[in-house]
Design brief:
Strand order of the largest sheet: 3-2-1-4-5-6-11
InterPro entries: NAD(P)-bd_dom, NAD(P)-bd_dom_sf
Strand content: 15-25%
Mean pLDDT: 94
Structural class: alpha/beta
Helix content: 25-40%
CATH topology of one domain: Rossmann fold
Organism: Methanoplanus limicola DSM 2279
CATH architecture of one domain: 3-Layer(aba) Sandwich
Shape: globular
Order of helices and strands: EHEEHEHEHEEHEEEHHEEHEHH
Distance between the termini: 39 Å
Number of strands: 13
Radius of gyration: 20 Å
Protein name: NAD-dependent epimerase/dehydratase
Length: 313
Amino acid sequence: MNSLMKVLITGASGFTGRYLIKHISEKCASAKNRPEIYGLYNSSKPKSSESCRFIKADICNVSEIEDLISSVKPDYIIHLAGERRGSYEEQFRLNAVGTVNLLEAVRKHCNKSRILVVSSSAVYGYAGEMPISEDNPLRPVGAYGVSKAAGEMAALSFTRQYGMNITVARPFNLFGPGQNEDFVTGKIVKYTGEIIAGLRESFDLYSLDSGRDFVDVRDAVRAYWDIISSPVFEEKCRGEVFNIGSGDAFTVRDVIVALEIITSHKITVNLPSEILPEIVPTQKSDITKIKNTVGWVPEYNFEKTLTDMLKEY
């Protein structure tokens, strides 16, 4: 790795961004010339880090993102920034329009850069009980899935139209230590810790039977780096889409049962009197493609990740 290697991470202050910075720093610690890591954030400023230079910029602001890209001229870009909440307009603004703004800036100022656009398994919607491959049709439900699908379609279009080095990753449900209660596993683990500490007796959930493919965030960031730094990137990754998951589906009930076994505590959950059917009752990834292309396989199993999450409490 030469001294000119620069890595730009958007959404660097988020849950995944923090782990990605740590992974790249550790992975390249023994390299003669470690990469320069630039972390882009917009709202909450991350804690200072010796391994990353943080820059405040809004990818929805065309002039700001163009100034940033023209100044840094990154070799690798891992685009994590995204919006999961709000109206269709708000989510499209960041997940689709913001992605296009970033790609346009790269096209103008450093069009040979490698770019990994991190999308989501939400683009698939409900695809049945079988493992979902990258060739499955996209049937997103709701603003997040639709806007993510639009963003990744734009990215792949830039590859075809301009010959840019872009790859799309579709992570399934990330979880891991430090995940907040906005996500179901983060919520369940936090409240389980409070039950053990005697701070609450129970907590509310909407349903126990929806199944999701949970993949540890530490495995996910390793996959992102394995893809973008692959020696066969231009040959086998450019213009492609890769699922990132565990290959298994676990229900919310499975999460509760696993935590009861790990903690030796009974966990009481309050459910509504009427449980509405899930629009996406289950998802499970087929990760054959990424295994065969870059050799990535998940290392953390379901119980290990939950155990590590509990240590936060």
